[in-house]
Task: structure prediction
Amino acid sequence: MPRQALTLVGVWVALMALLATTIAATFGPFGAWKAAINLSVAFCKAGLIFWVFMHLREQRGIARVVALSFLLWLAILMGLTLADVLSR
Amino acid sequence: MTALPLQTPEERVSYLNAGHTLRSWFLTTDHKRIAILYLVAITGFFAVAAVGAALIRLQLMTPTGELLSHEGYNRAFTLHGVVMVWFFLIPSIPNTFGNFLIPLMIGAKDLAFPRLNLASWYIFVGGGIFTLYALIAGGVDTGWTFYTPLSTMYANGHVLAVIAGITIAGFSSILTGLNFIVTVHKLRAPGMTWGRLPLFVWSHYATSVILVLATPVLAMTLILLFAERALRLAIFDPSIGGDPLLFQHLFWFYSHPAVYIMILPAMGVVSELVTAGARKRVFGYWFVACASLAIAGVGFLVWGHHMFVSGQSPYAGAIFSFLSLAVAVPSAVKVYNWTATLYKGEVVLDPPLLYGMAFVGLFTIGGLSGLMLALLAIDEHVHDTYFVVAHFHYIMVGGAVSGFLGAAHFWWPKITGRMYPLVWGRISAGLIFLGFNLTFFPQYLLGYLGMPRRYPTYPPEFQALNVLSSAGASVLFVAYVLPLVYFTWSLRNGRAAGANPWGASGLEWTTPSPPPKHNFEQIPVVDRPAYDYPLTRARGDE
Amino acid sequence: MSEYVTLREPYAARRQQSDADFLGMYVFLATEAMLFGALMCLTFLYRTQHPQASALAAQHMQLWIGAANTGILLTSSLFVALGVLAARHGQRRTTAGMLAGAMALGVVFLTLKGIEYGLDYRDGLMPVIGHPSPVRQGPAGLFIDLYFVATALHALHMIVGLVVLGTAATLVLRGAKRLPGQAVVVEMSGLYWHFVDVVWVFLFPIFYLARG
Result:
């Protein structure tokens, strides 16, 4: 049990490090890339929370598909609407 | 062998007489009783929405109709649209027949979350009563589509109350879809593999995917609308750079898949009606099953075809046009497969099959007009005309309502243990087909000739077609009342039904009519494919 | 372990019931993701249409409160995860303690949020009330209003999360739910809380860090 608890604490350390990174990136000289960097960091954090804290790594196929399906659907919403917004 | 008369439903122990108190009905967790609670609720909502339709058709009998004020007419078609879409069509088949049949069809004793099922009914009725009150106590004039900035800034009326009620009812949709998905994944009987599931179940599974992924987007859209109107937030306000078109994108991202929520369950019903009516295994089982999933999936990619002339970029319009043509393909696959199932089958023209065939014909006509609308060049001319109105009524009424009535005529003996007089079933099917076409075919012509929708008046040269349409509506009214009459009559006087009066294949037909409270004494073990015709027992046996 | 799990209708096996509970919760969380995701998509689309105004609006956000809240919420998730671990090992008091710790952090989050809203009011960012700052005119107002809707909705979900965690902790501490057999109530509560955390993980960069 202590080993598993240690894993959880390790994930927490990673999450805090990612938080520090994203804040630093906001103040850094990254210009237009900031949004992409911050979003990527957010995805990493969310991924860690889903995979470890939310036990997605223990689940079988269908639960994983369900848990992550929304990503595809939001991509559809975003993508096709963006196609309109950018080409008007 | 069957010399003794069948027990009447009152004599037999079943879910219907497992408790006679109000409490046993209103606090039930039995999916079959909840299905009946839903049936009563949606019938009531249908009647209210039909009143809206009656007002519209009465107003349009004359070119300068004086029945309603212009404001009143707007409220009439908004009432009709809101109640029909959210309080009749979306719950119609899934929450009545889906609730009743899915556990029976997969060999389970109930849905995955029975108490959630009951909660969804209360949420639905709560949202519905709230919306209904608002629509009647003054109403809303924005149309069921609530476009901004009319709905947020300029409309008078109870917009906030109506959209609050719709959002509440939306949670009922989400919970139903959730329940169905988990049920189909986890509660199938031993041996009931995905490849042996009835196509009715496949359709409802695809519908449930849409329910859970699309409805939350509607909830957010309505929350934003509520916030903008109630708190004077600036979300879609064009005066400070807000984009009303983004409202439309968010709204239609849900509302287009919503029409597939309305049609997929009916398609599932038709699959059952056609195979049972032809007593023949469905042609191309996997094609039909995958077509359901394809409709659900591709249906999420086409919403921009509601916005071709709203200011959307023509490039996005072209993309959406192409995808809208593509989504017709899986629907067409189903039509071909149903037709091929009937070919060389032992066709018996009982009412369920008549409704199934009505669906196939009317849905095809509606679908073809949909292809026309998907083409930018045609839609440029017929957008917002009666051509569009005719198109979606052919699908929703000719299609979805035919499916609903077909389901009622097919599974009534299972649900109630009583048979209705078949001759009246055939008469009502014919009358509905006649009345429907009389009502809505003229509307294709009117739209093509240029009559706009949502207008309370029209040029005098359109009167003849409008009168035909209104006349058809009165036939439809009678035709819809007929089943209410003979179904109610059958509850006391109908012949007692056996377990399998149609000689159909499917686990639900192996239980008594009506089924016992827990469906199966022992969970069945399935070792035969779906639609296992010819059945070893002859038609009509106990 | 399995002797405490009560089988509900209509399940025939404990693994089946547990799988169904997890799948149901993931489906529910997917719907919540679509809800918040739609709002985030709208925000991105406005950022695409009005990049400078969005950056200007973001500069008026209380970045350090937002950052502190992110750290607090991530830590509360750790507590919840440890609580679930303890529940799986049948440790009643540790479970309740961890959940209580998470709840305490949740209350700190909401307190800071309240203070933040107070500062927003002082700066004239709030709709309807207060003296509107010139920032609210023009497209920056769109961004600011979306920020309020998003964070208010999130706070509402946090409050529900506190109730959920509190109920789970109470049931476990009183022995109404025995561990580890009936740990599912802690697991489900944990999933919900983690999800509310994930929503914030995205809200933070989208609104607070969008300063250009």
Remarks:
- Chain A is about 85% helix and 0% strand.
- Chain A touches chain B through 14 residues (CB under 8 Å).
- Chain A has two domains: 1-54, 60-88.
